[in-house]
Every structure is written in structure tokens, then in C-alpha cells.
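Rotation project, supervised by the postdoc (A.L.). Task for the rotation student: set up a whole-complex structure prediction and record inputs and outputs verbatim in this book. Inputs entered:
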Amino acid sequence: MRLRGTLLSLGFRVCGALCALTAPAFAEPAGLEYPMRRVAHIFQPLSRPAEMISEAAYLVSLICLGVFLVVAGLLVFIMIKFRRRAQDDGREPPQIYGSTNIELAWTVIPILITVVLVLVTSRTIGEIQNMKMPEDALKIRVVGHQWWWEIHYEDLGIVTANEVHIPVSSRDPAQATPTHIVLQSADVIHSFWVPQLAGKTDLVPNKTNDTWLDPYETGVYFGNCAEYCGTQHANMLLRVIVHTPEGFAKWVASQKVPPAAPQTAEEIKGHQLFYGYACINCHTVDGTVAEGVFGPNLTKLMTRQTIGAGVAELNDQTLWAWVNDPQGLKTGCLMPDMQLLDPEVDAIVAFLKTLQ
Ligand code: CUA
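Outputs recorded:
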């Protein structure tokens, strides 16, 4: 058991490290409330559905390893035992056709192995998909867009983007407080995947899918779109911020406080530019005439950790770069370069920074 675990985890650590290399690396701000959980594989689950998938994957990998060892072992054995020798006379060995026993063995055994694999995987899929959510489970609707995530808390009146905030659950099923996630798409097929929390579930246009998260520990869990959806598929990143129950209540309360009105001359100028240019065609700021729905809701923009669906950490420099030319940070994204002058960018950034 221990050897199995060590070998497999070694293999997956290598894969995980390779995956992590492909994720955009930017320094995380110091003094974060929760640990960063930047894990890109399924073998360190911290949530019930992820744990079930991980267990099934271990079993399937083990069976495949067994098949590989038998086949490769026999091959090596035959290659050595029947190798060409010095006294070889060059004649072919006697040809034997049709052994019923051997034919039966290599037909029936693979069929049995396949049946076991089908049973194991369909049982896990069924258990996860048919899980009954408690009546009072937190319900979130996530809509996939090219290339960002729209996140609705309908019961709480909150709309945000790219960072899903949920409360922590418990390893004890009797005390679990899972979060129910409804998945939809505004354009093409995307896939919601946070490896440590749950398996991949597709977001399909004109269809509603479900998944659920049941995290055992607080943290900032990294996820991404797992279905190729266009140019910036690789930059359709996702974070799930798992709070303590008190932390989650605090986050909800903070999201419901409307942002302060712009104060300084720069902020007021930025406010005018924001409402004068095309920004409001695509973006919403709650309680104002900005009611666009093509881009992320900006009401509490500055409470987020990243910009452009995880393309960069959100700070003054990246916000400036984004407003100045979104295509520079994320080529192909739907927000065009508005050809703003530098002082206009300064003012709009000053206004956006009031959205907190
Ligand atoms: Cu969305 Cu890939």
C-alpha cells in the first residue's frame, strides 16, 4: 500500500509540477488570510467529490499498472528466453494455430478487467451526480464566458466574477455544509475544474449542469477552464476562496456595502469618462445606469485578487495596463483597446479604485 502510494504520488507530483509551470506565475501579496492551494492534479483532494474521484483514479491506475507489468513482463521474458543463439539453425519454429484455452483466457480476462473499470468509474460518477444537496445549501450560479466566469449568488443578491467565495464544510458528513453550484454557458462549452475540490463539469450552452463543493479546509484553491474554448482558454482561470463561516459572513456583508461615491477631482473625472465612454455597455456597477452584461460586474472590483480572469494580480499597475490596452494583457479578449490618452487612463483607474 505504502509503495503504491509513494510511486503514484511521485509520478503525479512530477505531472503536477509540470502543470504548475504552465500556470501564470505572479507573486501573491503577503499577509493573505488563507493559504494558497495551487495544486493542478487530483491526488491531493480536500473535498468529498474530489476525494471520491481520487480514490477511483488510484484504483484504475493500479489495475492499469498491473496489466502493464504482466504484458511487459511476459514480453521481456519471451525476448530473453527465445533470443537468437549461436547454435541457431535459422529455421522457423513449429507454427501452432488455435489454442482454445489461450484464446479464451485473453478474451475473457480483459473483458472482466474492463467490466471492473466500468463499474468503478460509473459508481463514482453516479455517487457524485446523485448526491442530494441539503435544502439550505448555499447555491451559486456560474456562467462561463469567453474567457471569464460570471458568478451569481441569487439568494444573497451578489454578482461577482472569477473568484468564487464559499464557506468551509466538514470532513464529518453529519456536519457537512456543501455548496451547490449550477453551471451555464453564455457562448461555447467551458469546463469548471478545481482539482482539489471537485471533478470537471462542463458548462454547455442551453443546458444547465450541476456540481458541488464540500471543502474540508479553508484556503484559496486554484482552478481553471478545462475545455478548450478559444484563444484565451489557458487564461480562463478560477479561484475558490474557502472561508471560515464567520469569514464568509463578513465577505457577504462587505459585498453588500455600496462603494463610496468618487471624492477627488481625478476620481470624479474618471467617473465621468467611465459613464461617457462605452464602458457601461458591457459592465455593471450596481445601483447606477451602468447595466452592461457582456463583461464582469465591477461593483466591488477592488475586492478581487486578480484581473482578467487570473491573467495578473490586481494592483495599480495591472489595472492601468488593462484599462490602457486589455489586448496587451489578454490578446483576443472581448474588451477592445479604447485608444484612451494616458491622463484619461489615470482618471478611470482612480475611479475604478473607488469600487470597493
Ligand atoms: Cu473556457 Cu476553456
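Student's summary: The domain at 1-81+99-255 is CATH 2.60.40.420 (Immunoglobulin-like).
Supervisor addendum: The radius of gyration is 27 Å.
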